[in-house]
Structure formats: C-alpha cells, structure tokens
Amino acid sequence: ELARLLELLLRPPELTVPVGITVVADGAPSVAVTYAASAEDDVDGPVPVTCAPPSGFAFPVGTTTVICSASDSAGNSASASFSVHVLDITPPVIESTVAGVLGDNGWYVGDVTLSWSVADPESGIASSTGCDYVAVTADQLETAYTCSATNGAGLSASASVAIKRDATAPTDVAGTASRAPDSGVWYNHAVDVTFSGADATS
After folding, report:
1. Could you give the CA distance from residue 33 to residue 58 in angstroms, rounded to a whole number?
2. Which residues pair with 115 in a beta bridge?
3. 152: closest CA among 90, 95, 96?
4. Residues of the chain below pLDDT 50
5. Are the CB atoms for 113 and 98 separated by under 8 Å?
6. What single-letter DSSP state applies at residue 123?
7. Which pLDDT value is given to residue 200?
8. Which residues contact 153 (CB under 8 A, 6 or more apart)?
C-alpha cells in the first residue's frame, strides 16, 4: 500500500493537448485559434494547465509551437507541445492603373502612365518583378507589361497590361483625282478623289 501511495505521489499529472491544429488565414496576417488542454493527477484530480501561446492567441501565418505544462501539489510537473499551422492559400493580389487619353481602337493619343498595386494581407510580399512605375512618352506599337509577385507562403501571381501609343498625326496626306480637270483646274462633272497618307505607328 505504501509503495503504491508513493508511486502515485511521485507520478506527474497526465497532460492532454491537441494533436495539432491547422487553420487557413483569410485576409489577415494572423488567426485567433482556440484550443483545449487539460491535466489529471492521480492524487489531486484535475489540475490547472498553462500554455504558451494561450488559447485565443492570434497565431501568425506559418507554424507555431505551443508548450503546455501542469504541476500537482507534490511538485511533480509534466509538459507537452503541439503545433498550430496557419496556412496562406491565397496568391498575391495584383491590380494595375493605366492613365492616359484613349483614342480609337485601343490606341492612346498622348502620354500614358502605368502603376501597380501588389498586396498580400496574409503572408506579405516576398518578391516581385516588373511592378515598377512605367511612363510611356513616345509612340510605340502594342507592348505588354507584366507584374509578377510571390508571397511569403511561396504562392505566385502575375498580371499583364498592353499599351499602344500614337500621338503623331498621319503624314503625306494627299488626294488624287480620277481624271483631269474639265477646264484649267476646274471640274464641271463628277470626279472621284482618292486620299492617301502614311502613319508610322497605327
């Protein structure tokens, strides 16, 4: 009996914690996660459990280890740990803003500026390419501009914008009559006139 009692007195509490928790971040860099942990002692019965980070903590994207511990009245202690995984499953959000005067058929008829907005509220932007400010100040054929970004979770996204600019009027515009004048430079009857011109861009 005495040996059994000593065994019980020296045995630490039995700690029960979650096996592991996985949640998905939704538009925020952290998620408040609640969990339950308990401890039972052979002599004292249920004993308090202390965990860090505590239940209800805002866990950041990634993996965080939670360590829990409990002690009985005899000073025996036990500890256990588990992981909280906060996943970012959303790629970066890329938006473009094009400013300029748009003419016919998608041609800009003056200077054009292009700026990008790159955001990832869950894990942030780890890297980006081609997302710099662009100013188109000279005529050009349709040119594609692509912004690509990767977030802290390794997810990538890209967006493209095509810009064509022609702010120069056509040159060598001329009309050609289908026949010679009736008298001097005058036409007394119907005449067909064909116009022509040149434009280096559009």
Report:
1. 6
2. 97
3. 90
4. none
5. yes
6. T
7. 82
8. 61, 87, 88, 89, 122, 123
3-state secondary structure of 2: helix
Q: How many CB atoms lie within 10 A of CB 198?
A: 9
DSSP one-letter code for 8: H
Position of tokens 């950041």? Answer: 60
Residue 201 has what pLDDT?
86
Alpha-carbon distance of 56 to 78, in angstroms, equals 22
pLDDT score at 198: 82
| Pair 165, 136: CB distance under 8 Å | yes
Query: Are the CB atoms for 69 and 89 separated by under 8 Å?
Result: no
Pairs from 145-150 (Cβ < 8 Å, separation ≥ 24): 145/114, 147/94, 147/96, 147/116, 147/118, 149/92, 149/94, 149/118, 149/120, 149/125, 150/92, 150/125, 150/126
- pLDDT 10s digits, 59-114: 999 999 999 999 999 999 999 999 999 999 999 999 999 999 999 999 999 999 99
